[in-house]
Design a protein that fits this description.
globular, 2 domains, Outer Surface Protein A, domain 3, 3-stranded antiparallel β-sheet, single chain, 10-stranded mixed β-sheet, 16% strand, TIM Barrel
Length: 485
């Protein structure tokens, strides 16, 4: 008789219970005592069903063991030895996959000179100072971009338009025009547009805040923490720190713009790695609703690049803050550590990514002249161009890109249990680090696995201690589904 063996999963323990993260299905499976006993026995060696039942029959009824074996086989937590699992079909996105988010780079200029900036720093891939792209998007290009977005959104009733730069608010006139035009055109087509932008906060004058509030524009502020951290790298062109300029403006924005939560986006570097201090300052002293952290994207030899031991330190700090998030969530209190919540949502939805993000698929970036790129980080790069807002997407180029970047072709990722949520990592990070967008981001594999394990444990705790907290993600799925005709 064929022997039973373990399938592909990541085990974890939460709230005193055993769970498996099932890699083929990206599902979380709770083990009862019989299932835990079976998995523990198969960790020692493979064995036949009869022998397994006989060994465990002193602890569990034979019928329960047989039923549990059947269930574990069904979810592919275990398998029949010698019968290889059929590899999942290489599923490509359907033709004319709808565009859900367009990032409009309304300018490639900035009034700050952040040392680590991927657009203007040492690792930039587009010449924004002396290149051929216009420094500011025109109203005509903005109009064509909105038409492109609504056309490519397909049957979706909601389209998301995000304004970006450079410093976005340097081109406020086009921002005003694009919002008014998009709202008018969308209404004529029976659609809606959700607006958001990212800004460094330096140009948040009262009349700008009024405009953002009146139009319910979501705002993300790029800020690195308290003064001593913000002013290390986020400086004006003359080297002066920006904290004292932006702090009062941000507080005024938070006071007056309450139609939507305001978030902060922090870039972590080797010099600014005190995650808890940054989080407490931005949430408790400034008043942000949520804060998201990301390690700096840069070549490994830069002075601000995070080394291996830095990633270990960052992970421990993330875990500490995640534990605090858990206690808040158990009590249905808000906690603004968005990195945890975003990952919990993906786990709950059973996300299994063929691609690390929507770049080149549901998300695209538009440069100041109307070229369409993989995402906003590649806007203006001819090497990463998918088309133009006037002529549309070059489907052959897009298909070639999607085929090349599919997780099935990333052999380094094929045995990693975290691949459903990672899929190799950010294309821009890979391009900056390795010179190739399709290259897996191997420098932070251990970090990703450690962080994913942490979020799985948080998820398990919530599933046991406050399952209603997780229902918000089901409501979000239902809402998103309602936006498709």
């Amino acid at each position: 008789m064929s022997a039973l063996a373990l399938g592909e999963f990541h085990p974890f323990r939460s709230a005193g219970r055993d769970f498996l993260y099932l890699v083929p299905s990206a599902a979380v499976f709770e083990l009862d005592e019989a299932a835990s006993a079976i998995v523990d026995r198969l960790r020692e060696s493979s064995t036949g069903t009869g022998e397994l039942v006989a060994e465990l029959s002193a602890r569990f009824p034979a019928a329960e063991l047989q039923e549990t074996v059947g269930e574990l086989l069904r979810v592919r937590a275990i398998s029949v030895e010698g019968v290889p699992d059929e590899p999942p079909p290489r599923q490509m996105p359907p033709e004319n996959f709808p565009l859900t988010t367009m990032v409009l780079n309304v300018t490639n200029q900035c009034n700050l000179s952040c040392t680590y900036c991927y657009e203007y720093g040492e690792d930039k891939i587009v010449d924004t100072e002396n290149g051929r792209k216009p420094k500011f998007m025109s109203e005509q290009t903005a109009r064509e971009s909105v038409d492109f977005m609504l056309r490519e959104s397909g049957e979706n009733r909601m389209a998301h338009l995000t304004f970006f730069g450079g410093e976005t608010l340097l081109n406020l006139p086009v921002l005003r025009f694009a919002i008014a035009y998009a709202r008018e055109r969308a209404a004529a087509m029976g659609k809606e547009v959700d607006f958001s932008l990212t800004t460094n906060g330096t140009l948040l004058r009262p009349e700008v805040i009024d405009f953002l509030t009146e139009n319910r524009v979501g705002v993300t502020i790029s800020i690195d923490g308290p003064k001593e951290m913000q002013d290390q790298f986020r400086v004006f062109h003359n080297g002066t720190g920006s904290y004292d300029v932006i702090a009062p403006k941000i507080r005024e924005l938070l006071r007056r713009h309450q139609t939507r939560p305001i978030g902060a986006r922090v870039t972590l570097t080797s010099h600014t790695l005190d995650v808890r201090k940054i989080f407490q300052h931005l949430t408790e002293e400034i008043g942000f609703w949520e804060v998201g952290f990301a390690p700096v994207t840069t070549s490994p030899n830069r002075k601000y690049a995070i080394a291996e031991e830095g990633f270990d330190d960052m992970l421990e700090q993330f875990r500490s803050l995640a534990d605090e998030f858990l206690e808040f969530a158990v009590e249905n209190r808000h906690h603004g550590f968005s990195n945890v919540k975003d990952t919990l949502e993906e786990i709950h939805k059973g996300v299994s990514k063929a691609y690390p993000c929507g770049a080149g698929l549901g998300l695209m970036g538009v440069s100041t002249d109307g070229d369409v790129a993989l995402c906003h980080r590649f806007a203006g790069s001819d090497a990463h161009k998918l088309g133009t807002v006037r002529s549309g997407i070059d489907r052959l180029v897009q298909i070639g890109y999607l085929e090349k970047h599919h997780i099935a072709d990333k052999t380094d990722c094929s045995q990693c249990w975290a691949r459903p949520l990672c899929s190799g990592g950010c294309y821009h990070e890979a391009y900056t680090r390795y010179g190739e967008t399709a290259h897996p981001n191997l420098h932070y594999c251990e970090w990703i696995r450690g962080w994913t394990d942490t979020c799985l444990r948080i998820y398990g705790e919530l599933a046991v201690r406050n399952p209603r907290y997780l229902e918000q993600f089901e409501e979000k799925v239902a809402y998103e589904a309602s936006q498709v005709n």
